[in-house]
């Protein structure tokens, strides 16, 4: 019996299309790798233990390492500990929740101690069964961008400061010149006239304008003091209605002289707050002074206090000239004054409301104005109530 092979069966498979697909995939992978390696962003792939499986050249260059040196390492090998902890926490959040983190900012230092800021997106890498097996991340170094943004904001603030100062100089070159001119002319006439009654008129004008100039200087000095030091919140508990009563008494003569009805409606129970009564008195004085200045003869001003939840509310309502809708957003800005308020009799520094807001907010309070031209203005101030007795 013969076991010799008498023939063979040969099969041929056409793999031309398969080879073409493989070559196409390889070209696409090469192209993708070129794009990944040459993008300035830091691109990486991590496993479920946050170890690097793949990094692009930008990441390796950023940490001054060879790409192969980073495989198997973690962020703790690349950045200082506190900075690395931020990245680790983000990794753990993505691995645990399976949710992407988009454009989160993290700041810290590299191993050389240089400050850096990253904007990072991390996306979960999932297996076919949906389980999270790693992280795909892309980070961008935005340190210089943040520096430029800060410089831009600082430049804008400086430009606004210069603009405000120029506006201030332009405004007050007029406002200081006016009382000085009145003083000079009255002084000149005082030397010329011999009539006692006329001399008295000139003396009164000199005194009035001198007080006005002194008021300007006092406002400047007070604003500078508030800027240069924190408001001293004395641990003193006092009754707020008593403070308002004193303010009303201080302005009663001015209101009577101008034929303004000044009404004071205190809360039906004592209102105790804690803070610096001298500062708060000045804030209220400024608000009432504004109301009197811009309320014409025959008008009225109502001052009222009330308890609202755990707050004290002070409401000052006048029937004055009002503030236009365009001016209202700016009235708390330093040196800002509506044109209608600029006169030799009432024009101030434009600091009164700024000082009031600075003091009130320094006491954890709020101030808000509502106004309508030709109808009047309402100022509302809230301050937290004191809960413990004074010691």
Keywords:
single chain, 391 residues, alpha+beta, five-stranded antiparallel β-sheet, five-stranded mixed β-sheet, 46% helix, 22% strand, elongated
Structure commentary:
With 391 residues, the chain is α+β, with helices and mostly antiparallel strands. Helix content is 46%, strand content 22%. The protein has nine helices and twelve strands. The chain has a five-stranded antiparallel sheet, with helices on both faces. Strands 7-9-10-12-11 form a five-stranded mixed sheet, with helices on one face. Strands 6-8 form a two-stranded antiparallel ribbon. α6 packs parallel to α9 (352-362), α7 (240-257) packs parallel to α8 (277-293) and α8 runs antiparallel to α9 (352-362). The protein is elongated and about 155 Å long. Mean pLDDT is 84; it is low at 340-344.
Gap between N and C termini: 124 Å
Beta-strand residue percentage: 15-25%
Q: Largest sheet at a glance? A: 5 strands, antiparallel
Q: Strand tally, please?
A: 12
Number of helices: 9
Proportion in helices: 40-55%
Secondary-structure element string: HEEHHHEEEHHEHEEHEEHEE
Strands of the largest sheet, in order across it? 2-1-5-4-3
State the secondary-structure class.
alpha+beta
| Poorly predicted ranges | 340-344
**What is the residue-mean pLDDT, rounded to a whole number?**
84
């Amino acid at each position: 019996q013969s076991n010799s092979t008498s023939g063979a069966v040969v099969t041929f498979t056409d793999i031309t299309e398969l080879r073409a697909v493989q070559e196409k995939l390889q070209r696409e992978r090469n192209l993708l790798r070129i794009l990944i390696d040459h993008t300035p962003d830091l691109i990486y792939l991590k496993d479920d233990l946050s170890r690097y499986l793949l990094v692009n050249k930008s990441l390796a260059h950023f940490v001054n390492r060879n790409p192969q040196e980073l495989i198997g390492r973690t962020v703790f090998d690349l950045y200082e500990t506190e900075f690395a902890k931020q990245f680790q926490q983000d990794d753990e959040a993505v691995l645990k929740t399976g949710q992407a983190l988009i454009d989160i900012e993290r700041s810290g230092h590299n191993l050389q101690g240089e400050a850096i800021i990253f904007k990072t997106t991390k996306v979960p890498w999932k297996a076919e069964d949906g389980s999270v097996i790693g992280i795909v991340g892309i980070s961008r170094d935005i340190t210089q961008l943040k520096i430029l943004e800060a410089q831009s904001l600082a430049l804008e603030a400086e430009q606004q400061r210069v603009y405000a100062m120029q506006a201030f100089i332009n405004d007050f070159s007029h406002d200081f010149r006016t009382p000085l001119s009145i003083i000079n002319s009255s002084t000149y006439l005082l030397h010329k006239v011999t009539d006692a009654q006329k001399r008295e008129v000139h003396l009164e004008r000199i005194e009035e304008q001198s007080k006005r100039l002194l008021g300007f200087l006092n406002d400047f000095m007070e604003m500078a003091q508030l800027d240069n030091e924190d408001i001293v919140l004395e641990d003193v508990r006092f009754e707020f209605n008593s403070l308002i009563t004193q303010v009303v008494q201080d302005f009663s003569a001015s209101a009577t002289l101008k034929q303004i009805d000044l009404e004071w409606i205190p809360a039906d129970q004592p209102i105790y707050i804690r803070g610096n009564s001298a500062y708060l008195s000045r804030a209220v004085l400024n608000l009432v002074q504004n109301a009197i200045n811009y309320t014409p003869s025959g008008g009225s001003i109502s001052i009222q206090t009330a308890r609202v939840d755990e707050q004290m509310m002070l409401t000052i309502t006048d029937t004055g000239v009002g503030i236009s809708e365009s001016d209202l957003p700016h009235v708390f800005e330093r040196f800002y004054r509506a044109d209608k308020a600029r006169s030799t009799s009432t024009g101030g520094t434009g600091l009164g409301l700024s000082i009031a807001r600075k003091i009130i907010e320094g006491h954890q309070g709020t101030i808000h104005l509502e106004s309508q031209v030709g109808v009047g203005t309402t100022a509302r101030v809230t301050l937290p109530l004191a809960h413990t007795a004074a010691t």
